[in-house]
Amino acid sequence: MKLLEGKTALITGVANDYSIAWGIAKALYAHGAELAFTYQNERLKEKMHGLVKQFNPRLVTELDVTKDEDVARVGQEVLQTYGQVDIFLHSMAFVPKEDLHGEFAKISRSGFALANDISAYSLINLTNALLPAFEAAGGGSIIYLTYIGGEYAISTYGMAGVTKAALEISGKYLAQSLGERKIRVNGISAGPIKTLAARGIKNFSGLQQKAQDFMPLKGEMTPDDVAGTAVFLGSDLSKSITGEIIHVDNGFHCVRG
Known about the structure:
NAD(+) binds at residues 13, 19-20, 40, 64-65, 92, 164, 193-197. By secondary structure, the protein is of the alpha/beta class.
C-alpha cells in the first residue's frame, strides 16, 4: 500500500546518500510521492542532479536560505511546477566551526545569529514561501529534523543545541498558526546517526557510543530508521497530529542511566 500516492514533497538538506534527508526521500518516493529537491549552491549542482535523477524530479533548484529572494523564488517554483505541495521536509543546520567547538560562553554574536538564521528561521521563512502551494493542496505536512541536544545540554553539541531548541519551539508556534489551514507541523528527533553533518560535531563517535550504551533498543541507527516516521507524518494517517516531536532514537530520550 502506497500511503503518499498523489502527494508532492519538497526535500531540503540532501548532502549525499548517507544523509537522513536522503533516507526520507527514498521512503517518500517508495510510497508514491513526487519529489522536488533543493541544493545549497552552484558548486553542488552537478552532484545533486546526479544523485536525485533516480527519482525523476521535475524541480531541482538552488536555495540559499540566508537570501529572502532565494526562499521566495523556491516557493514560486514549487507552485508553478507542481501546482501544490503536500509535504515539506526541513533538514538543514549550520553553526560556524569556531562557535560549535569553542567555549559556549564565548560564542560570537555573529555566529549565534547566523546559526539560528540558517537552522531555525529557515523553517519559518520557507513555510511562508510555500503557503500558496500548501493552500492549493488544501493543507499538508511540514516535517523538521531535530535532536535531543535541543532539550538537554549534550557534551560537545553546544550552539547546535540552541538552534535545535529554537527550531522546535518555532515548529510548535507554526503548528498553532497554521492549524486553520490544515497544515500540520511536526518534528522528528533522531538519535545520533553517522552523517556528513554529524562528522562536524567534536568527538561524535564518543557521543554516539555513549548514547548506544543507554538506549533501551540496541544497535546503530541509520537514516532508514527515521524514514518510516517521516512517511507516517506525511500521510493522512497523521492527520490529527501537529505540534509534536517524535523521538526516533532507540528510546535514548527516556533514560538517563
